[in-house]
Amino acid sequence: MKIHLFFFILLFWVTILPATKKYPQYGSLDLRRQCRKGNGRCRLECHESEIRIAFCMRPATHCCLQK
């Protein structure tokens, strides 16, 4: 089990950390705040009178805007 943890940490260190150093603007994007700036709400399902434009925090939640 310890060897799996070691390889997981190694994989994280090799792939994710260099990407955040090279492209810091992508790691700091808060989709929930961007949805609220556009007068939207993060919901699991949008009503018929709303338009779904993007995902919020998880792929299951959508940013819903009023028509």
Fold and architecture overview:
- One of its GO terms (biological process) is cell chemotaxis.
- It comes from Nyctereutes procyonoides (Raccoon dog).
- With 67 residues, the chain is an alpha+beta fold.
- The protein has a single domain, classed as Roll (Antimicrobial Peptide, Beta-defensin 2, Chain A).
- The chain has a three-stranded antiparallel sheet with strand order 1-3-2, covered by helices on one side.
- The chain is elongated, with a radius of gyration of 17 Å.
- The N and C termini lie far apart (52 Å).
- 9% of the residues are buried.
- The model has no long low-confidence stretch (mean pLDDT 77).
How is the biggest beta sheet arranged?
Answer: 3 strands, antiparallel
* Shape field: elongated
CATH architecture: Roll
CATH topology: Antimicrobial Peptide, Beta-defensin 2, Chain A
CATH class identity: Alpha Beta
Separate helix tally: 3
Mean pLDDT, as a whole number?
A: 77
**CATH superfamily label:** Antimicrobial Peptide, Beta-defensin 2, Chain A
Structural class: alpha+beta
Gap between N and C termini: 52 Å
Topology order in helix (H) and strand (E) letters? HHHEEE
Q: Which percent range fits the helix content?
A: 40-55%
Please count the beta strands (DSSP E, at least 2 residues each).
Answer: 3
What multimeric state do the chains show?
single chain
Strand line-up across the major sheet: 1-3-2
Q: Please indicate the percent range of residues in DSSP E strands (runs of 2 or more).
A: 15-25%
Radius of gyration: 17 Å
GO molecular function: CCR6 chemokine receptor binding; chemoattractant activity
Organism: Nyctereutes procyonoides
Protein name: Beta-defensin
GO cellular component, one term: extracellular space
